[in-house]
Amino acid sequence: MSVRHAIPAVLALLLVSSSTIGIAGSVQTATPANYDSAIPDDGPDYGVNNSTFQRLWSEDTDNGNLSADDFGDANVGSRSEFTRRLAQSTDIPFPRPPQAAGDWNRGDFDDYTPGNQRSSVHPIGASLTDGVYIKDAYVSVFAIQPSTILHRGNETTRYVSPDGTVRTVSDYRVAVPQSDRTGSERDRWSVDQTKIESIKLTADGQPLDTGRGHQATLQYTDLSGSPGLTVTATISVQLRHVTLDCPSWNQTGDGCGGGWTHDVETLEASKTVSTSQNVSVAQLTQATGNRVQFETDENRTGAVVHPNTEWATITVSDDVRARSNWRFYTAGRAGWQTMATRTATNTSRAESSVRPVQVHAFPSQQTPSVPTDPTDDGKRPLVIEEAWGTERTGPSLSPNIDLESADSYVNADSVALSSTTLDERDFREVTVHGIIRGQSRTVSLAEQQTVRETNLTVTVTKATATHAVVQARVTENSTGDAVTTGRVQIRNQTTALNSSGIGVVTLSNPDSVVRGEYTPTAWWQAEKPYTKSTDITTLPADFPDAQSLIQLVVVTILWFLPVAVLLFGFDYMSGGELLGLSNRT
Length: 585
Prior knowledge:
This protein is mainly beta. The protein has six helices and 31 strands. Strands 2, 3, 6, 11, 16 and 19 form a six-stranded mixed sheet that branches. Strands 20-21-13-12-24 form a five-stranded mixed sheet, with no helix packed on it. A four-stranded antiparallel sheet has the order 5-4-7-10, with no helix packed on it. The longest helix has 28 residues, at 546-573. Residues 1-36 have low confidence and may be disordered.
């Protein structure tokens, strides 16, 4: 559906925000013919409630003509009905891989009904193989659980967990030769027995598990790397061929005048069919981190966590967690909307009764965030200071997926967290949840860093009427050791610090007050993190030197001595009447 339908999109956003609910392989999503064919008729079921069930089928054709009135109280009587209408109008992402996808697949898998000896029932996406007697044989992967298809750039990769399940379906039909029941030599064909002998799961040729029958649930453990998973089905059939011969055949009466001789022959045939899927195993084993304390704020604590891979959430304490920019949607697996039934003479199609669903992940337009509500005093229990990683181009989703991915995004495989409400003990370990449902790893943050307080001292070492040379020295407040990282800014100039923690700048036309600020490397990216610090000083007064003062005094005396003598002479001549300095008496 086009993004022009603003009202349904806003409703979807509100619903989501309030809900508490290998080798890269190319994956395509089938475009449905209509809304009804995209959503199975037998749902909701298998423990999936109606609200969640409606959200599972993002490949449906959305109805953009729904208005705000369609979501009003007059038309919507329950939350499930609201969600159903919303899912008809747009697609609704999940904040993390939904459990409902696995629940649905486990239950719906049992709905598959194979054909009989003369018919093969298969999804239209299956690859069929013929043998001499075994026809329309196939094996298809119904679901790999848990798994997530990651959309990244122009590629898609199916990620699986190291331990998982592969569910498969297989079927075939037997082509029995035509019996001849006329003449003196006759033969009769029948099926003695037929079965699917084995279903084998391998990874790059290494056996993992075996099963049998039309439906098999295969397990694997300790998978790693980017293997090719292959499922191989071995089908066998045993035919009985009876040949009858009449030595005394009555040509006139067209019948056997005596007894028939019988020759029984047993023929065995087998057929092997297989299907493969490239996967990549998602690992959280490289996740590391350290916790951080702050000298200037004993109530503040934090951590730097490096999942080193795509992640969904990082849980710090109970329900306090950080959420990544990855969002999730589900859609039916391609090729399973229609089921075909093949016989020797006919092929019929019907809406499939088995509809596996697949989880997808895509980079959203949102940045990593904290979904936890603020405390009573309005403080966020957790703050994402920074999330960093490789910048990448966003993917283009299938046209029938009504979700907007980021044009470009940062694949944040590192994140810095801080809090002024959580206890330091809450940061002793965190749990990283991956993009695969149920996959998580608890990371111990035993290593601790301290963001140390600094002291900046700004000194004017030389000043003239037009210039000033200013020295900045940065030290650790507690030890006095020199700080050699970060930069100092004085007015519009910045300087790095040398091995002694000193930087020097020259200012033109300086103000009388000089202010400096030390800006450290961000604490989450520094081996020795520090706090900011500032200092203020003034330019020294421009007093003359001693020689200049003596010269000034001498010049002043020489200038004013004649005037003083003259005044004294006038006063003397006037008998002291001018200045009162002399008395003629």
